[in-house]
Amino acid sequence: MSHTVWIIDDDNSIRWVLEKALARADILCESYASADLMLQRLEYDTPAVVVSDIRMPGTDGMALLSRLQELSPELPAMRAVGYRQAIEHLDGVTDAATFRDRAIFATRQLAKRQITWLRSEHDARAFEPDAPGLAAAVEAAVVDFIGRTAMARHG
Fold first, then answer.
1. What pLDDT, in 10s, does the model give residues 35-53?
2. What residue spans define the domains of the chain?
3. What is the sign, positive or negative, of the torsion defined by CA atoms of 31, 35, 65, 155?
4. How far is it, in rounded angstroms, from Cα 143 to Cα 27?
5. Are strands 49-52 and 29-32 parallel, antiparallel or unpaired?
6. Which of 79, 78, 75, 80 is nearest to 4 (CA)?
7. What angle do CA 151, 146, 55 make, to 5 degrees?
8. Alpha carbons 10 and 124: distance in angstroms, whole number
């Protein structure tokens, strides 16, 4: 098993940003332009952490997640919410008000599930949404989590 973070995104600029952020934190990473390419690599090695886009040509992120859970059920997972609603709005399928309402509803649903899960986590982190420097604090926490997870899986 590798102690690297694997990034899967069909958008080269997203891969580049993530690679640079992880490099600044001295975290090794490999990036792939498609889930299919990553799955080929998975035949020879297993990452410590996978960061994947959802909407991609070929095998999408949800199918990739299902495949990864079959092959490596011990890999940790984080979920994002609101991206589907944002994509629908950006594609012109919904107006801004509908996007907002649907994103809020999806966020509340996920929050209820996450509260139950977080109660069992001893090292969970909470952030005050109006605190100055919130973005930097969250970025540091995510990089720390990815690094700790990579090291724990390697060591």
1. 999 999 888 888 888 888 8
2. 1-77
3. negative
4. 8
5. unpaired
6. 75
7. 135
8. 31
Answer whether 0.70 is exceeded by the pTM.
Answer: no
Class for the domain spanning 1-77: alpha beta
pLDDT at position 135 is 83
**Number of other residues whose CB lies within 10 A of the CB of residue 67:** 15
Q: How far apart are CA 92 and CA 30, in angstroms?
A: 34
User: Residue 51 CA to chain centroid, in angstroms?
Assistant: 5
Of 49, 74, 52, 73, the residue nearest 63 (C-alpha): 52
CA–CA separation, 22 and 57 (whole Å): 25
- Tokens found for residue 107: 């966020």
